[in-house]
Amino acid sequence: MIPYIMKRYVATETRSGNPGDPELMQFAAEAGVSYVLRRDRSIARIMAEEEADGVIVWKQEGPVLDLGGERFFYHPSMGKNRVSQIRKGHSDPMIEAMGLKRGWEVLDCTLGLGADALVVSFVVGDEGRIVGVESSPVTAAIVRWGIKKYSKGPAWLKAAMDRIEIICADHLEVLKQLPARSFDIVYFDPMFRHPIKSSCAISPLRQLADHRPLTEEAIAEALRVSRSRVVLKERVGSTEFERLGFKPVFTGEHRDIAYGIIEAGS
Hints:
The structure is a single chain. Helices cover 33% and strands 23% of the residues. By secondary structure, the chain is of the alpha/beta class. It has helices at residues 22-31, 43-49, 77-87, 93-98, 115-124, 137-149, 155-162, 171-177, 216-225, 240-244; strands at 9-13, 34-35, 54-59, 62-66, 71-72, 105-108, 129-134, 164-168, 183-188, 226-235, 249-251, 257-263. Helix 5 crosses helix 7 (155-162). It has 10 helices and 12 strands. It is globular, with a radius of gyration of 19 Å. It folds into 2 domains: 9-72, 3-Layer(aba) Sandwich (Rossmann fold); 77-263, Vaccinia Virus protein VP39 (Rossmann fold, 3-Layer(aba) Sandwich), CATH 3.40.50.150.
């Protein structure tokens, strides 16, 4: 596998925070970043003095990555809005494409900010399971600790968040190690080759994401692992559907997004 082009990030406390906070130290270890003392420095000064591409500030509500203009932190965002619609009886295109049922087990191979995983978690409930695989240690740690620290919203939202299991690894390596038919659904939402410009919320995530295209090997492993189907989210008209053998293709929540399906055993 081609390795990441690594960037340097450092973690620090807020100006009024506790230097060497044990949770901050644990987060930094999980994220694979260096801890530096704040010493009342601005973010810009820390970036310059530490030769860092970004600074993760440890806040009471969770870690916030400052990229010198853009910020990345965990928030339920559209996932919460979609669950609210489901609770009102409305359909969700991703859930329909998955054919998802309560109690099912889902492997999300491209966790990112976790919006899709949150929706899945709510639908499968306590009887089900949702595992999110994220290849970026920084992203995985920010989402994991953001969920842990999240204290807003209703109980059903927090319960759905807390059910998300996060694995920091390359999805192909995870798939290879899993037994056959060990998940009902295997799901991919790779970073679009041509981003949707209106998706401002995930713009900082693009700097942390793995932009390599999905491989035929990963799809083959996903089909081996799945008991029901493999689902791919892409832009409408994407050639990835045809290249990787996904059909039929359903239009998503708006005209830019579609979901492709391969039935297990096909």
